[in-house]
Amino acid sequence: MLWFVLALATAFFSAGEAVLFKRFFGDRPPYEMIVWPMAWSLPLFAGYLLLSDAPEVQQGFWSVMAVMLPLNMAAFLIQTWAIRLSPISLTVPFLSFTPAFMLGTGYVILGEAIPVQGVAGIACIVAGSWLLNRAPAASGRTCGAGAALLEPFRAVYREKGSMLMLLAAFIWSLTAVLSKKLALLGTPMYTAAMFFAIHNTLMLLLIFGFTRVSPRCLRERPLAGAALGVCMFGQIVFHYLAITLVAAAYMIAVKRLNGVISVAFGRLVFGERVTLWRTAGACVMGAGAAMIALAG
């Protein structure tokens, strides 16, 4: 079960990245927040490329990368925006929808069959989203039972961060499947390093070229920036190593247990009010992701 250990490590690095974002850079606009992980992880990706021999890649490698780059850049920006707008315990768990979306994208792009048991996993994720957004006061309202049942789903629409994270989750379902295809056309480490060396460089050029953000901002909070860069590098490396060992939806399902981890981090680091409903919701969503991982 090496893939499971690697995917779980990816989940921890992902949750740690979200916490560092919120803790040290949450006061900045989303496009400025992105500068730190992009810049601080870039030397790590570039260093690997310089110190290793480039493998021979198969036909289609560069065309798949060209499709992935704009999608990944958009998803990263949307996810960062969501983390900035709302508590991480209300946003990051919605990334658990990614493996649910991948039941479709994985089948279309990779031909990975959709298991029957995956339906139960999707049901758990939807139920978890209901619990996650159930206001404690809702049970005390005088509205009808039907309205009370629908109230948590309305809360998702009211919480902009949750809506944005759902959009990011869908885009990640596309890029995750494409990342496996790309890694199979090359090698996991080379693919990860090459893709993110180009990705990060393009993102930084766009931000520095078309916004008021200056490279001088990187002088601020260097230790937090370095830690954020390490988290991003670790998450990407473990992601690419794991996703080639198992069906893409399975690996991403375990990775999305970062939702459960983020609830604990939100409480410990930010003192966020983590109700029983919110904790239960994150756990049920994580259980749904695990069921999808074990399906088939």
How would you briefly describe this protein structure?
Helix content is 77%, strand content 0%. The protein has 296 residues and is mainly α.
**Secondary-structure element order, as H and E?**
HHHHHHHHHHHHHH
Our count of helices gives: 14
Largest sheet: none
Portion of residues within helices? over 70%
Shape: globular
* Percentage of β-strand residues: under 5%
N-to-C span: 16 Å
Uncertain residue segments:
137-142
Number of strands: 0
Structural class: mainly alpha
Mean pLDDT: 82
The rounded Rg comes to 19 Å
Key phrases:
mainly alpha, 296 residues
What can you tell me about this protein's structure?
- It contains 14 helices and no strands.
- It has 296 residues and is an all-alpha fold.
- The two termini are 16 Å apart.
- 49% of the residues are buried.
Question: Strands, helices and their partners?
Answer:
Layout: H1 2-25, H2 30-33, H3 35-51, H4 61-85, H5 88-91, H6 97-110, H7 118-132, H8 145-158, H9 160-185, H10 188-210, H11 222-243, H12 248-255, H13 258-270, H14 276-294
Helix pairs in contact: 1-11, 1-12, 1-13, 3-10, 3-11, 4-9, 4-10, 6-9, 6-12, 7-8, 7-14, 9-10, 10-11, 12-14, 13-14
